[in-house]
Amino acid sequence: MLQVANIRANKEAYIEALKKRNFDAAGIFSEVLELDETRRSTQAELDDTLAESNRISKEIGLMFKNGEHQKANLLKEKTAGLKDKSKTLSEKLNETSEALTKHLYNIPNIPNDLVPAGVTEDDNVEVFKEGEIPVLAEGSLPHWELAKKYDIIDFELGNKITGAGFPVYKGKGARLQRALISYFLDKNTAAGYTEYQMPLLVNEASGYGTGQLPDKEGQMYHVTEDNLYLIPTAEVPVTNMFRDEMLSEDVLPVACTGYTPCFRREAGSYGAHVRGLNRLHQFDKVELVRIEKPENSYAALDGMVEQVKDILRDLKLPYRILRLCGGDLGFTSALTYDFEVFSTAQDRWLEISSVSNFETFQANRLKLRYKSADGNKQLAHTLNGSALALPRVLAGILENYQTPAGIKIPEVLVPYTGFDMID
RNA sequence: GGAGAAAUGGCAGAGUGGUCGAAUGCGGCAGUCUUGAAAACUGUUGAGGGUCACACCUCCGGGGGUUCGAAUCCCUCUUUCUCCGCCA
Q1: Closest nucleotide to the alpha carbon of A64, via C1'
Q2: I need a surface site. Which of A62, A171, A243, A268 has the fewest CB within 10 A?
Q3: Can you tell me the distance from the alpha carbon of A382 to that of A256, in angstroms, rounded to the nearest whole number?
Q4: Quick one: how far is CA A123 from the chain centroid?
Q5: CATH no. of A4-105
Q6: CATH 3.30.930.10 occupies which residues in chain A?
Q7: Run of H or E residues at A89
Q8: Residue A264 assigned to a binding site
Q9: Which amino acid positions bind L-serine, per UniProt (predicted)?
Q10: DSSP letters of A282-347?
């Protein structure tokens, strides 16, 4: 959520920047500023009314103390009008504030200067590429065939127990996934991130805090009996730890990492590209979350990108980094880098990580601020990124490491798996 | 799940209808003293909105109500604690 004061101060520059998202902000900005104007004048009027009735109440109190009951009762009658007035005004204030917030919820974050203009994912800009795409032997298979051949992931069994998109990992498949999670967490904690285990269900307030609610309600599983939501990413519980917090400057930067399963309804997204592990309703992910001072947040973003690079180098997977264009950029993000690993057998790139700087966009909604030594209070910057999302990394490993003799295990994982080949 | 108690500033803890945004203690900050530190003493110290700055408004777990006036009374929700039941 943008800050109204910033919209007022940078209206033209913001309108220009939002064009990169193909978002025409001129109209909604005018409405926002007008509503804010109304809100403030209504507030002022209400304050005056309340001040008046506070003053009278005190007077009445004094009169009763002095035994001037008649005088007091006379004055009481005067307050009736003030009461009505303040009731009307506070209703108007609520309506205006609600309308204002609703408008603000509909305005996406201002893209960073680095964000290229563009409409679809085809306009994303490749900024880095590394790793060799292996030449596979004749008869190499996509991961869902490999999963069946070596009996390590059972999609049908998941269908039976729950439904499509809930695979069952088995034997060395299960072990490999657990190895990856441990390895990612070790790697992240070694880089200074503190490990967390978070609740997998969150309340409504948390959903609003990170912006899943109210708009993307349909993407989360909703436990209606208790009004809780299954998390679509660890970002939700982790970031919400800091909701309504005033951090002291010296705890920054905050760096968290956590493994959680993620649950996504993915309503309506079915088709050729969702086979196997490509898109699931439940999957595992290790997430990074950082809270930074504004002046450090872009250096921190680069640091997170390096962290993910480091992991992919360790795993010796061919990958590329894309800078998302305005059209593909997430609603809340100012700048996002997507990591894609090459799926050899499918001959396509698979997104495995998304690293973003939200600047103050999330912090404003969360009321996440910090106090500097001089007592100055301001919104912090929040960032997050996947390090990494499991299923597609698994798919990449299965496909890229396949040999006629079986699937080799990346060297760094062997201490975690205890075996070096799936055969 | 049942029965009871509670929720107040960074923390502890008073306050049961009228100068209470809130005593007191601890902590924090500033000063006195000291070569320096500690101790002691003195002062200061919640948040949000608003204003050039004041004024002023809001906030005592959340929401609603009674009243001229609510931290204080009523309703409701949430959370915590104690006892009972159940349980990995």
Answers
A1: B18
A2: A268
A3: 11
A4: 23
A5: 1.10.287.40
A6: 121-422
A7: helix A69-105
A8: yes
A9: 233, 264, 287, 384
A10: EEEEEEEEEEE-GGGHHHHHHHHHHHHHHHHHHHT--EEEEEPPTTTS-TT-SEEEEEEEEETTTT
Nearest nt (C1') from A52 Cα: B56
How far lies A414's CA from each of A36, A396, A419, A420, in Å?
Answer: 59, 17, 6, 6
Calculate the angstrom distance between C1' of B79 and CA of A179.
38
- For strand B, the positions having any atom within 7 A of a protein Cβ are 18-19, 47-51, 55-58, 68-69
For residue A32, give the H/E element and its range.
helix A26-65
For residue A52, say whether it is annotated as part of any ligand binding site: no
Estimate in Å the CA A49 to C1' B55 gap, whole number.
14
Q: Which CATH code is given to the segment(s) A121-422? A: 3.30.930.10
Closest to A20 (Cα-Cα) out of A410, A326, A413: A326
Low-confidence ranges of chain A (pLDDT < 50): none
Q: Look up residue A97 and give its two tokens.
A: 């504030």
Q: Where in chain A is the domain with CATH 1.10.287.40?
A: 4-105
A107 labeled part of a ligand binding site: no
pLDDT of A104-149, one tens digit each?
A: 888 999 999 999 999 999 999 999 999 989 888 888 889 999 999 9
A354 is in an annotated binding site: yes
